[in-house]
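Record 1 of the preview.
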Amino acid sequence: MQLETKFSKETRCFKVSRVFPTDVNNHDTLFGGKLMSYIDDIASISASKLCRVTAVTASTDSVDFLHPIRPTDSVSLESFVTWTGKSSMEVFVKVIREDLKSGERKIAATAFLTFVALDKHNKPIPVPQVIPETEEERKLNETAEYRTKMRKGRREESKKFADYLLTRYPWE
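->
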């Protein structure tokens, strides 16, 4: 059975927000946890647009904070599926800060997340293959195999490491 294919652009999502005083930390920059929440939210929408079933976050490979986001900025997020495996998909999120007074824009952060498509019994199911078209999409698609290999190795190391961790609370 040949699964359908979809273009990366069919999974593309955008979100723009103003940075309010309640969104910043003690350094007067956007709280990292708030940005990470935005990232997971928009990435999950891109994943769902690809497979049109429940898609759950399997991992966040990285969130690289490149430039601070200040209260005088807006924060724009763009996400799309870059690559697909059998039941998993890699989603890229680009975060752009824009100084609302000067109009200067910078890439403030980037992130890669992996989602898995699930059926109604919460079992992994196949996803459509994604087809990149733009130069940016093609570059991310071409480099996905390396990230996938690194992700799998890191997951195995995490499983081994977890065997050494205690589940007992300090007060017990």
